[in-house]
């Protein structure tokens, strides 16, 4: 399938700014997200994905696990204009790139776990239409890469960042369809036997499981300096049966009773400290 003109222009623009050896074989792009949230239309996110058949950008969905700035003149619009040489300035929302991360550490949790407990692992064939930057686009990066010229691995590995902040951002140009471009949806095991698993299995891609995130509420005070004691206090309050896991955070989010930014920081604590030893 021929790529849209704006995608070709964006790929060409980034390729001209990239250098280094080709991307090593066996690395994947992943799209991390929270699978138990609802979209701006009130529809559960996995149900909306099954309806649409494709992963949509923030410009289309109006939702985000980061900031909501995907509109003309907004921060994300300006970042994309800068990174892609204005290729998407006049493009409709449904033809803008979707964001993920290069899983260069080969983590079972995906390349950017700060953005969610679940991830789609994309087919290797999508790499030829991906561009990359380091650090995240919010920081106005100067280092870029493509599958044919990837110096970013050395840049990222040399940067001393928190484990949640060392992502190599990926941009997929062109559609990301669940039936053609996704190798698997990888979920946290806390969702086994739940509505999330049922909804996930309605998608036309395999479902897999990673080792999971669990943090005993009794351990939370030890991490109060990570995002603040108000965050660990909230985490303890929403833990269920003495354990914080992604499903507990999702349940708290659906009540609408908590600051979404605080819940995001609760997730950061769980993502950072709630993995089984050795995973």
Q: Tags for this entry?
A:
279 residues, alpha+beta, 2 domains, eight-stranded mixed beta sheet, two-stranded antiparallel ribbon, 10 helices, 30% helix, DUF3626
Topology of this structure?
Elements: H1 5-15, E1 29-33, H2 45-52, H3 58-61, H4 75-83, E2 98-102, E3 118-122, E4 130-134, E5 143-146, H5 152-158, E6 168-172, E7 182-187, H6 195-200, E8 207-209, E9 215-216, H7 224-227, H8 229-238, E10 243-244, H9 246-255, H10 260-273
Parallel strand pairs: 7-8
Antiparallel strand pairs: 1-2, 1-3, 2-6, 3-7, 4-5, 4-6, 9-10
Helix pairs in contact: 8-10, 9-10
Concise synopsis of the structure shown:
InterPro entries: DUF3626. With 279 residues, the protein is an alpha+beta fold.
């Amino acid at each position: 399938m021929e790529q849209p003109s704006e995608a070709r222009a964006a790929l060409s623009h980034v390729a001209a700014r990239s250098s280094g050896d080709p991307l090593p074989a066996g690395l994947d792009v992943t799209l991390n997200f929270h699978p138990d949230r609802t979209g701006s239309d009130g529809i559960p996110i996995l149900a909306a994905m099954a309806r649409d058949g494709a992963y949509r950008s923030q410009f289309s969905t109006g939702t985000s696990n980061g900031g909501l700035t995907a509109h003309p003149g907004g921060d994300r619009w300006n970042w994309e204009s800068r990174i892609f040489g204005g290729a998407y300035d006049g493009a409709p929302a449904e033809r803008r790139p979707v964001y993920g991360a290069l899983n260069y550490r080969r983590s079972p949790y995906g390349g950017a776990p700060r953005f969610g407990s679940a991830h789609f692992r994309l087919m290797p064939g999508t790499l030829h239409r991906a561009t990359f930057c380091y650090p995240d686009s919010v920081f106005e990066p100067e280092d870029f890469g493509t599958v044919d010229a990837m110096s970013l691995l050395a840049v990222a590995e040399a940067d001393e960042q928190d484990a949640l902040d060392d992502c190599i951002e990926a941009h997929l140009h062109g559609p990301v369809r669940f039936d053609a471009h996704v190798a698997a949806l990888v979920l946290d095991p806390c969702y086994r036997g739940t509505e999330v698993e049922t909804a996930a299995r309605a998608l036309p891609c395999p479902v897999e499981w990673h080792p999971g995130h669990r943090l005993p509420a009794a351990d939370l005070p030890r991490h109060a300096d990570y995002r603040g004691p108000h965050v660990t206090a909230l985490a303890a309050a929403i833990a269920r049966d003495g354990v914080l896991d992604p499903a507990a955070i999702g349940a708290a989010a659906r009540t609408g009773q908590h600051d979404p930014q605080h819940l995001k920081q609760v997730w950061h604590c769980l993502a950072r400290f709630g993995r089984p030893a050795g995973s």
